[in-house]
Design a protein that fits this description.
Structural class: mainly beta
Distance between the termini: 28 Å
Number of helices: 2
Length: 459
């Protein structure tokens, strides 16, 4: 595992300075087109970066690390580490002002940077295969003059250290979603702004019991207060609170541990080849009830009613999405959508693009190709579906949520499909059962809070 972190290091290189003239009333640049080489000493005043595996030792910059330099509100060049020190050139630094240094974790900016012109750039700190994207910034302690021979800077991270225990033993990478994975640099304002791009995916290589660390924006960790970290091929486990504020641009070396595990899938030998997850969305064991979702919503609610449902204006006749009959649409609205789109599929939104909710037909395929018994597994009532290949799937009787109440938990199971009931589009299909019946498909109000069992598409 190749992880870059920054310790105490001083880098030196030959300094060749071009002569500059200084105007009396405003800073000036070097002669147009001039490039200069600089000597840079990076200091951290005794701050320590701990190795994530051993919790000891300082780790230095590595070959290929790049520092971006700004002056006068624009990007002016880069310095690359060659294994011993940083080297490179900068163009037209402003006389009388400090230089500004940014380390972006060796993630290539999305924009093309042009010296003297570019004022902003952004990087998406997602792929962890070969680098750890620590984001750092500091101005030089000295202002640039023609006589300056050495620059020093106290680079400190603008992030928080988060540890992930990757417990998957599969070859596939593990992805964490819900993080603020984009960093935008404003060279004119000397600011770093953090935001989420897409599902906020952070990709970690496959590993078994291997620890990974990510230096994330401090505010990104607020996402973890509600347990929003998931793996694409696994369920969220454990909890982590928000990281304390990082004051005065100081180090945070204490990691917040988030455990990520791979949930199992079961191959029931179905004609379609579809694989089913062994636990509900929001649960980490087969017996766990998990969360309850309204149809077409991707987060659980505290209250389930038409008044809170996402895709209507308060009633069954004011639908704003997934409506094929104008008398049920808001002001006659129709879109003829009959299957949940990925952005409205709770499975896809929470576990990634390889996962989704089963359609009505896929529930029927499961029903037609397994035998079912009512059973109690680890103290939880539910149905055990057994296929001809000997594999089985347990589905707990988790009940459902209406208004703020949970009803029939331990007695009934209500599992959404991704299919709209087109005769009355304010309803959607679900798979239901109790101890006495195990029949085909049913339909319920779309606002109802019901369980989600995921399926995995095999390419």
């Amino acid at each position: 595992m190749n992880m870059k972190r920054i310790g105490i290091i001083a880098m030196a290189m030959t300094l060749i300075l071009g002569l500059s003239q200084c105007k009396k009333e405003q800073p000036t640049t070097a002669n147009e087109g001039d490039t200069v080489s600089i000597r840079l000493d990076i200091q951290n005043n005794g701050g320590t970066r701990m190795d994530v595996n051993t919790s000891t030792g300082e780790v230095a910059y590595e070959t290929g690390d790049v520092i971006y330099v700004a002056s006068g509100g624009t990007f002016i060049g880069t310095l690359a580490h060659n294994g011993t020190n940083f080297g490179g050139t900068i163009t037209n630094p402003i006389v009388g002002e400090p230089l500004h240094f940014y380390f972006l974790g060796n993630v290539t900016p999305a924009e093309t940077l042009t010296a003297g012109i570019t004022t902003t750039c952004s990087v998406v700190i997602s792929d962890q295969t070969d680098h750890l994207p620590v984001i750092e910034y500091a101005p030089s302690n000295e202002t640039y003059t023609a006589g300056t021979t050495t620059f020093t800077a106290h680079l400190l991270n603008k992030c928080a250290l988060v540890k992930f225990n990757v417990t998957t033993s599969s070859e596939a990478a593990t992805c964490i979603t819900g993080m603020k994975n984009k960093v935008t640099v404003n060279f004119a304002e000397y600011t770093l702004t953090h935001s989420q791009e897409g599902n906020g995916v952070i990709t970690l290589p496959a590993g078994n019991g291997e620890k990974w660390a990510i230096l994330l924006p401090q505010e990104a960790m607020e996402e973890c207060e509600t347990g929003s970290a998931y793996s694409v091929d696994g369920a969220y486990k454990g909890t982590c609170g928000a990281v304390p504020a990082i004051l005065d641009n100081s180090y945070l070396t204490a990691g917040i541990e988030v455990f990520v595990s791979t949930p199992n899938v079961v191959d029931l030998g179905l004609p379609s080849g579809l694989l089913w997850a062994t636990c509900n969305l929001g649960a980490d064991t087969p017996e766990g009830y998990g969360d309850y979702f309204a149809w077409g919503e991707i987060q659980p609610n505290d209250y389930y009613d038409w008044s809170t449902y996402r895709y209507c204006n308060g009633s069954i006749s004011t639908l704003t999405k997934y409506c094929n009959k104008s008398n049920y649409g808001y002001n006659g609205f129709t879109d003829n959508l009959t299957t949940l789109l990925p952005e409205d599929d709770a499975a896809t939104a929470n576990w990634g693009s390889d996962w989704r909710m089963p359609t009505k037909e896929e529930w029927q395929e499961l029903y037609n190709n397994t035998t079912c018994t009512w059973t109690t597994q680890n103290g939880v009532n539910g149905r055990l579906l057994t296929a001809s290949n000997g594999n089985s799937l347990f589905i707990p009787a988790a009940g459902y949520r209406n208004f703020s109440d949970i009803s029939y938990a331990g007695s009934y199971g209500y599992y959404w499909s991704s299919s709209l009931y087109t005769d009355w589009p304010y309803l959607a299909w679900y798979f239901g059962f109790n101890s006495g019946y195990y029949d085909d498909m049913y339909y319920n109000y779309r606002y109802s809070g019901q369980s989600v069992r995921l399926v995995y598409d095999v390419e």
